[in-house]
Amino acid sequence: xxxxxxxxxxxxxxxxxxxxxxxxxxxxxxxxxxxxxxxxxxxxxxxxxxxxxxxxxxxxxxxxxxxxxxxxxxxxxxxxxxxxxxxxxxxxxxxxxxxxxxxxxxxxxxxxxxxxxxxxxxxxxxxxxxxxxxxxxxxxxxxxxxxxxxxxxxxxxxxxxxxx
Amino acid sequence: xxxxxxxxxxxxxxxxxxxxxxxxxxxxxxxxxxxxxxxxxxxxxxxxxxxxxxxx
Lengths: 164, 56
Prior knowledge:
The complex is a heterodimer.
Chain A lengths: L1 H19 L19 H4 L11 H5 L1 H7 L2 H31 L7 H4 L3 H27 L23
Helix pairs in contact in A: 1-5, 1-7
Chain B lengths: L1 H6 L1 H31 L7 H5 L5
C-alpha cells in the first residue's frame, strides 16, 4: 500500500500541476503560452465536440464538469484510499510490535501523529517527487530516439512539448 | 525573476516538494530512531548523526 499510494500521489500531482505550471524546454510540459485549462475549441467541448466525442464530453453541465476532471478525480481518490489503507495496515503492524514489547497499543488517530507513519510515508513521497522532477528536467537536455517521452533528437533545448 | 519562475514552474514545484519531503523524512526518521534508542535505555541521536548514518 505504501508503494501504491505514493505512485498515485505522484500522478495526481503531476496531472494537476501540468495544467497550470510549465517547464520551458521539457517534453513533459505544455508550451508556456498554453498554460491553464485551455479553450473549449482546443478541448473539443461545447460547440466544438465531434461525432466521436465521448458522451459525457457532449452532455454539458455537471456531467461534462465531472468528465473534464475525471483523470484527476480518479487518481486522487485512489491515492487517498491507498493512503488510508496504508495507515490502517501500518497501525496494526505497529500495535503488534507494541504488544510484543509489553507496551500499550495506540489508536489509529494517535498513530497518524507517530513518526513511524510519517517516516514510511515521506520516504516514498520524496523518491516519487525526485523521479518526476528529474524526468521534467532531463527531457530538456537528453534525447531518446523514437520515444514519445523525448523530443526529436535534433530539437533545440528550449523547444517545449515536441515528441520524438 | 518572474519570467524565470513562470518558465521553470514545473521543475521548481517538484524540486521544492522533493526537498521538503526529504527534510521532513529526515526529521521523522531521527525522532523514530531516538524513540527506539530510548526504549532500549539509550540516549537520543542528533539529526546530523542520523542523516549521516546508514539508517537514513
